[in-house]
Amino acid sequence: MESTRLNKFISHNTIYSRREADKLIEDGLVTVNGDVVSNMATKVTNEDLVKVKGKVVKDKSNDIYTVIVYNKAKGELVTKSDPRGRKTIYDNLAHKFKHFLPVGRLDYASEGVLILSDSVEVVNALMHSNLERVYKIKVNGEITQEVINAMANGLQLDDATKGAHEKSEIEQMTFAPFISYQILSQGKSFSKLKVIITEGKNRELRRFFANFDLNIVDLKRLDYGGITLNNLPTGKTRYLTKEEYSNLRQYMRDLKKQDS
Predict the structure, then answer these.
(1) C-alpha span between 41 and 37 (Å, rounded)
(2) Angle between helices 242-259 and 120-127 (to 10 degrees)
(3) Which of the following is catalytic: 107, 118, 159, 223?
(4) Cβ-proximal residues to 105 (8 Å cutoff; 6+ apart), any chain
(5) Cα 206 to the chain's mean position, in Å?
(6) pLDDT per residue as tens digits for the range 94-140
(7) Cα 34 to chain center, whole Å?
(8) pTM exceeding the 0.85 threshold for the entire prediction
(9) Non-local CB neighbours of 32 within 8 Å, separated by 6+ positions
(10) Which domains are seen in the chain, by residue range?
(11) Residue 7, phi then psi, degrees to nearest 5
């Protein structure tokens, strides 16, 4: 049976943060199976009776998992290692996150919200979801009416290789209508947009705009399913907030209901 650290168990199933859970343990306010616990390294399973200030802490999920947000910088690969020796996100992540898996990918030249988790189930669920992804992009040209029509109505390309990675084997691609788009600035040399899509296909936005001879100069993901950077500096990580964990647990429960 899988065990988890006591402070993580408390923070995932109560209003307390992990730091607050550590303080509760330090103050002797946490018991496991009737015994006061003072060892911060204590681990528990869902069969242990955990109490905080005399109140039972109920496991609110079948799986206890950790999810973090990483503000990916440009020039990092979302992969464990690179044969060419280029920098990867794991060169920058703390050692305790080395086994975490990314929810999808941001390519080498892209930046912003990247979600990682130690739960394969969570990663797969989020990766293949239709949750909204929000991007701020800069392209090297004007946004024509043809581009606007395609964003509004979707696009079917028999040849979607423009904008793709040179080793990509994906040629055809169907682009669903964007959930929304906002042209932030417009110019002959450069234009900036904020777009919301619900798919996560291989270099989807780069392929989409390349079809109109627009190369994406800058691409930053601002939001993934309601999870934002929240002022997180580039190259740094944060844990999900209590509200984000609550929303994620509800999302996972809803998925299981649909599958049952």
Answers:
(1) 10
(2) 80
(3) 107
(4) 78
(5) 19
(6) 999 988 989 988 999 999 999 999 888 899 999 999 999 999 999 99
(7) 38
(8) no
(9) 6, 42, 44, 48, 49, 50
(10) 4-56 (3.10.290.10), 65-130+232-260 (3.30.70.580), 132-224 (3.30.70.1560)
(11) -65, -35
Q: Is 107 among the residues known to form the active site?
A: yes
Could you give the CA distance from residue 173 to residue 154 in angstroms, rounded to a whole number? 11
Token pair for residue 188? 């002959």
Query: In the 3-class helix/strand/coil scheme, how is the chain assigned residue by residue?
Result: CCCEEHHHHHHHHCCCCHHHHHHHHHCCCEEECCEECCCCCCEECCCCCEEECCEECCCCCCCCCCEEEEEECCCCECCCCCCCCCCEHHHHCCHHHCCCEECCCCCCCCEEEEEEECCHHHHHHHHCCCCCEEEEEEECCCCCHHHHHHHHHCEEECCCCCCCCCCCCCCCEEECCCCEEEEEECCCCCEEEEEEECCCCCCHHHHHHHCCCCCEEEEEEEEECCEECCCCCCCCEEECCHHHHHHHHHHHHHHHHHHC
CA distance 5 to 43: 4
Span 214-232, pLDDT tens digits: 999 999 999 999 999 989 9
CA-CA distance, 232 to 211, in Å (whole number)?
Answer: 33
Q: Kindly report the length of the chain.
A: 260
Burial 21-53 (b: 16+ CB within 10 A, else e): bbebbeeeebbbeeeebeeeebebebeeebebe
Tokens at 167, concatenated: 């080793």
pLDDT in tens, 152-206: 999 999 888 887 777 777 778 899 999 999 999 999 999 999 999 998 888 899 9
